[in-house]
Amino acid sequence: MSDILRDLFPLVWSGMITGCLYALGALGLVMIFKCSRVVNFSHGNVAGFAAFLIYGFSSGVLLELSWGAAVLLTIIAIIAIAFLSYAVVSPLVFESDLTATIATLGIGLIAQGATLLIFGADIVSLDLPVPRFSTAVLGLRITGYDLTVLAVAVVTIGALFFVIDFTKLGIAFRAISENPFAAEVCGLNLRSVHLFAWIVAAILGVVGALLIVPTTFLSVTTVAAFMLQAFAAAVIGGFASLPGALVGGILVGVLMNLFTFYVSPEYSSTFLLGLIMLALNIFPNGILARVEGFRV
Amino acid sequence: MSDQNVSLPLSPVDQAGWRSLISAQVGTWLLIAVALCLPLVVAGSWVFALGICFANAIGVLSVSVLVRYGGEVSIGHTFFSAVGAYTVAILDTRFGIPLWLSVPPALALGVVAGILFAWPSRRLSGIYLAVSTLALALAVPEIINNADGLTGGYEGLYVSEPLVPGVKMSLQRYYAALAVLLAVTYGLARLRRSRQGLALLLSKSHPAAADAFGARQVWARVAVMGISGGIAALCGAMLAFAGSTVSPSGFTFWAAIFLLVGSVVSVYGLTFPRALIGGAFLTLIPQFLSASGAWIPVLYGVALLGVILAGHYLPRLTQAMGRRKGGA
Lengths: 296, 328
Prior knowledge:
The complex is a heterodimer.
Chain A: H1 2-36, H2 43-59, H3 67-93, H4 97-119, E1 134-137, E2 140-143, H5 144-166, H6 168-178, H7 180-185, H8 190-212, H9 222-236, H10 242-262, H11 268-282
Helix pairs in contact in A: 1-5, 1-8, 1-9, 1-10, 2-3, 2-4, 2-8, 2-9, 3-4, 3-8, 5-6, 6-8, 9-10, 9-11
Chain B: H1 15-41, H2 44-70, H3 78-95, H4 99-118, H5 126-146, H6 148-151, E1 157-158, H7 169-193, H8 195-205, H9 207-212, H10 217-243, E2 245-246, H11 253-265, H12 272-288, H13 295-327
Antiparallel strand pairs in B: 1-2
Helix pairs in contact in B: 2-7, 2-10, 2-11, 2-12, 3-4, 3-10, 4-10, 7-8, 7-10, 8-10, 11-12, 11-13
GO cellular component, one term (chain A): plasma membrane
Organism (chain A): Psychromarinibacter sediminicola
Protein name (chain A): Branched-chain amino acid ABC transporter permease
């Protein structure tokens, strides 16, 4: 019994840490879906491309910059890419969300191909400049990486919720998610709010990718695979609820960790598939659908 | 929305419509005739490639059916084609059962898999199905590799049992795939005119009207996925037979997305020529670009966006041109 508890505690903790990252990815997906009804399938590939750009800018493959400058430059590049992708998708958004969703797959394919063309299919490692320390609290090993992830996730998500709850832009975003037609009648510009969502989502994707890569390595497929967890988190949260995405992310992180430890690490995608199907059956409108008072 | 004009597009019912319909029919028959005679003319490697092309065309059809009749996208159809392919391959290698006996169970399993898969998202918008197919696509290689006792793992299985003993195997592989492709397009043409097909289309485009007529939404969604899964299983069965080997490398996540790309490039067409365009796009481009593999996703992505944007802008352009002509 105590054995199980001893294993369980660290598993849940590390699951929560990675879950925060899945939540970051899921929040981006949900933001885009909420306001434009498009599922952005290019999310993972573009974020992966961004992770490679940071690697390229800081390691000397493309440029030799400090880590901070590389991240800054990448974020600028990613904003440009988000702008371009929305420019491609925007004429389709108002016509058919299905067509626009398919179009994002095309963007994802191009991002994937660009990554392969520029950086090749090799595996590289990309580390975070975080302080290396670890302490033990109640038998739990807490590392500098854990605390960094937690801090970054809390600050980013807090800032996002603050913007959406209290700024004009956030009110416009909520209005458009609620009723695009009425919002347009009131003089809101749909496209600029959509663009806001796309850019924020892209940046969230970069942050998530940057923080997940140190736990594994960086290859063409790692970040795209990481985004499957983000998709699962978004589905569990109902795909149209930002707090739902957060809860879903943490839930997926913890459950995945438990599954890979206790059952099998080889069937992780299959497990996610089962989780998505189960969530669709039990909470078709998301895990927070019955809780009232959430409006983000 | 403000830039859309109020006038409705004119319905294209005129004499030219009938004429183009008849010429399209003639074109299809000509194409079928060419496909039937081609193995007599071209080299063996091309016969093989064309067999795969027909099999891929069936896969493209399975995705197009889903888009046309269900209004849904799938990026996980490799799951259903893998079901078909492994059914044929396992029955072949384990029990020596030839293709004509192993295709019916493959088809049945595909239909059942499609229905089971559509069930959880039956009441939700198509977005949920699309997202769950993403997970499906990523799970396929994992399942195949880990169930290696049954599927042969990375090495895969070799399909060798002939369909008709005594006939040259390369010709069998070609004609079997062609025959199934023709059967599927014929079946889809029949479906378009059948009551069931019309009910499916109605419940896609006018859900409330379909409800009023007694066509239930849940039934429609699940049925479309069942049909689509069955066709995809036929695609897999034919990929196994025409390609002679079945291995996880044929059912990757990217293969699933490429099926959708093929469907978009064929403009979701359900006819023989359109399916052939999609299949050829999937089969021949990787052959031409085999030396520079990284260009394939770029090219596919550009083709996907190009076709979608052309589909968006071309009608507007022609409309604008027509207006200018009419005004002058």
